[in-house]
């Protein structure tokens, strides 16, 4: 039976073991409390964190009843006119060009999670400050990673944007994992994009423009400050030279 790792301390392990052992026999309020405990522990699918694991059946129950916190990253061209999307190999939205992303881990900051997922699913390694938070999109899908079940995905998705400094000569230089079979650039106004993609682009565009404008303003201010500093140093040198000449004349 497939199982899923969780990120937890020793106390967390005890709670998970206790909940897992009694979960099937819980009813009513007790079962809701169990769901709440698991939600707080933030069960993760991909963290190498020791030997404590949840069974597939237990994780199915969690996904059936608890929304999942996720992060996504949309990659944009330098002119902000195109976005790079990846063709998903697995459900949900199987065979659809979509943004990269995944689950938020326990105690992980949103921005750090976005950096991690970007590096896991692409070959891009960026600093957290390079990502721009666009907002939150609620995603509800009719299916989930459990392909042959009635369980659907319900994600609370924090959306980040990344603007590349230059266009890559080969998209293959960016694709970095086996979760995607292809990648392609799409116009941001392409009406064929998945509705959630259109929503995310809509949220990100003004934030990216604002971020770019602020960046350009800082560059200009730095250049202006540098120019002013140079002028001040030049004037200071002239004053020192003038003072030395005055001393020499007086001494002569």
Automatic annotation (TrEMBL):
SUPFAM superfamilies: Nudix
Ranges where the Nudix hydrolase domain occurs: 66-209
Residue ranges, annotated region (Disordered): 221-252
Record-given protein name: Nudix hydrolase domain-containing protein
Pfam families on file: NUDIX
Compositional bias of kind Basic residues: 231-252
Superkingdom in the source lineage: Eukaryota
Organism: Chrysotila carterae
